[in-house]
Amino acid sequence: MSDNIAKIILDGKTYELPVVVGTMGEKAVDISKLRDMTGYITLDNGFANTGACKSAITFLDGENGILNYRGITIEELAEESTFIETAFLLIYGHLPNEQELNRFSDGLTRFSMIHEDLKGFFNGYPSSGHPMGILSAMIGSLAAYYPELVKPDPSREEVDSIVVELISKVRTISAFSYKKSRGEPYVYPRHDLKYIPNFLNMMFSSPAKEYEINEIVVDALQTLFILHADHEQNCSTSTVRLVGSSKANLFASISAGINALWGPLHGGANQSVFTMLTQIQKEGGDIHKFINKAKDSNDPFRLMGFGHRVYKNFDPRAKIIKRKADAVLNDLGIHDPLLDLAKRLEEVALKDSYFIEKKLYPNVDFYSGIIYKAIGIPEDMYPVMFAIGRLPGWVAHWKEMIENPKNKIGRPRQIYTGEVNQHYIPIEKRS
Ligand code: ACO
């Protein structure tokens, strides 16, 4: 590979392919014309080494544990910014000035109510329904309430309007899903409360008792939402982009992203961490038994909350959130045997040669569940909390994509490995 050309030799012939270099120096070989030139495609299970787009939103360097949103480090944002400001930064590409921030925040307050008819949908779900399934269905259903916004090429103003509707309503829908699952009456959003306190109030207030806002809890959620807000081309964001690439509307694309996030290998891992810890506890708390199961290649068990596709030294988000988790537990004076078990498991795994060699470290989901548990959020809401945090990132990627006139519909290829030259056999002749 020379400065801006890569050479590939196929069937004895040399072909030249352009090299693309990003602003942080990362390099790619542009293979988009490879098939036209050579007849070959590239094969990359799980897209582990494939860039699907150029993007100016988030930079991630897994080897060195770097995560930047729009060029600002995650450490700086977690320390200095708020979730709403970070959401604006991701979506619009710059930190908002006072006027922009006020307009954005006012919109989030004004649009927090959901249509009364839409509220009726909740009654149709069984109370045992997982809130993540309800969230994704409800976000998809929003499209039916905003037909004027459901079009292939919305204007800039229309996009701004859907963005505010979504970021505002996701809290209300999430809190209502929780109330539904507990059989409790819904608590409406309040215009005098900020984004996170408003959400906590909808979750935890009841006709019997109003929720008392706890600044430690608000601060912990603020940090978690900032850390979750974007993570470049992860599974759910790639899903949002893929669905949106067909010009499906934003509600449909986000609903698909929520479903992708739900999986235990992705955003569902935070819930799985607690399912796993509960199982270890129930079976007598023998950590070594479970570490050995995770190391056994014949056993499908994995240590949930460990490992990451791109972070191979440490997850910078986990570093920040670990400190926050310790502070929350201390400040709230919480002592929970399950949380002690999590800490012991982390200690043992970090010293184990299998985890060291395979570069498996605790990821953000290992610690996020600890915070959620400490502040009283039930396990099945953990992936929902992740979805609220990730929404600005999904929106930013969808917006970046539809604003790029050169964007193509997502459509990977494959290598076919099935039967050849078969014939139709009438059913009476089939064995
Ligand atoms: N426990 C035990 N072994 C593991 C774990 C784990 N958590 N994660 C990976 N490994 C092993 C695999 O068995 C594999 O071993 P092998 O080389 O002997 O076959 C090797 O490490 C590489 O694993 P892959 O699955 O190939 O790595 P990949 O990059 O595809 O997967 C993933 C990353 C999905 C996150 C994986 O580490 C995992 O399943 N972790 C547990 C689930 C989890 O915590 N997910 C949350 C990720 S963070 C997020 O989405 C916000």
Question: Can you give a write-up of this model?
Answer:
By secondary structure, this protein is mainly alpha-helical. It folds into 2 domains: 5-51, Rubrerythrin, domain 2 (Single Sheet), CATH 2.20.28; 95-404, Citrate Synthase, domain 1, CATH 1.10.580. 52% of the residues lie in helices and 6% in strands. Strands 1-2-3 form a 3-stranded antiparallel β-sheet. It has a 3-stranded antiparallel β-sheet with strand order 4-5-6. Strand 4 and strand 5 (66-69) form a beta hairpin. Helix 2 (74-80) runs antiparallel to helix 9. The model has no long low-confidence stretch (mean pLDDT 93). Bound molecules: acetyl coenzyme *A.
Briefly, what is this?
By secondary structure, the chain is mainly alpha-helical.
Topology (elements, then pairings):
Layout: E1 5-10, E2 13-21, E3 27-29, H1 34-38, E4 58-61, E5 66-69, E6 72-73, H2 74-80, H3 83-92, H4 98-110, H5 116-121, H6 131-145, H7 156-182, H8 195-204, H9 215-228, H10 235-244, H11 250-262, H12 269-282, H13 287-295, H14 316-332, H15 337-351, H16 353-357, H17 364-374, H18 382-402
Antiparallel strand pairs: 1-2, 2-3, 4-5, 5-6
The protein binds acetyl coenzyme *A (ACO).
Number of helices: 18
Count of beta strands: 6
Radius of gyration: 23 Å
Q: Per DSSP, what share of the residues sits in E-state strands of 2 or more residues?
A: 5-15%
Find the CATH topology of the largest domain: Citrate Synthase, domain 1
Mean pLDDT reading: 93
Order of helices and strands: EEEHEEEHHHHHHHHHHHHHHHHH
The hetero molecules present are: acetyl coenzyme *A
CATH architectural designation of the largest domain: Orthogonal Bundle
* Biggest sheet features: 3 strands, antiparallel
| Tally of discrete structural domains | 2
Strand order of the largest sheet: 1-2-3
For the record, give the distance between the C-alpha atoms at the N and C termini, rounded to a whole number: 56 Å
Shape: globular
Structural class by helix and strand composition: mainly alpha
CATH class of the largest domain: Mainly Alpha
